[in-house]
Amino acid sequence: MKxxxxxxxRLTIVTLIFFSGVYTLVILGVAQFxxxxxxxxxxxxxxxRYYANIGQLFTDDKYFNSRPSAVGYNAAGSGGSNKGPSxxxxxxxxxxRIDTFLVHNPGVEKAxxxxxxxxxxxxxxxxxxSEKAALVQVERIAKLRxxxxxxxxxxxxxxxxxxxxxxxxxxKINVLKLNLALDQLK
Length: 186
Fold this sequence. Notes:
Layout: H1 2-31, E1 42-45, E2 48-51, H2 88-104, E3 128-129, H3 131-135, H4 138-145, H5 149-158, E4 160-161, E5 172-174, H6 175-184
Antiparallel strand pairs: 1-2, 3-5, 4-5
C-alpha cells in the first residue's frame, strides 16, 4: 500500500505546485505580450467605463444591436442555452428574436437577417458581429439619427477588424466601439 500512496501524494504536490504556480506565471508572462497586458480593453467615454471584450446590450433603435446573450450579458456567469437546434423552446426564442428584429427593421427580408443577430454565442457574451449584421441595421439607424446611409456604411467599414494575422477567424466588428463612434458622429 505504501508503494502506491507515497507516489500519489508526491504527484499531487508536484501537480499542485505546477498548476498553482509555474503554469500561472507562464500564462501571466505570455499575456504581457498582448494588448493591455492581457487585462482586457477598457474604454472610457463621457465619464463611463466600458469593457470592449464583453458583449453589451443595446436596446435603443438608434444603436447597432449586439448578438443576443443566453446569460443576459452577465459576465459573472458566461454560458450558452445548451438547447439543441431542434429544441422547440429554443426555436420559439429564435423566432421571437426574428419577429422583433423585423418589427424594428421593416425593410429587411427574413432571409437577409444574419444568424448572429438571432442566436446567442456559446459564451453568451460575444462582443462582435459580422459586417453583414452591421450593414443590415444601417437603414434603421440612418433614419432615426437623420444621417446619410453612405456615412453609416463607411463607419461600419472603418470598424471592421480582419482575421487574426490575416488568417485565423472571420472579420468582425466590435459593437461597443461601433456604437461609441456612432455617438461621436456630427
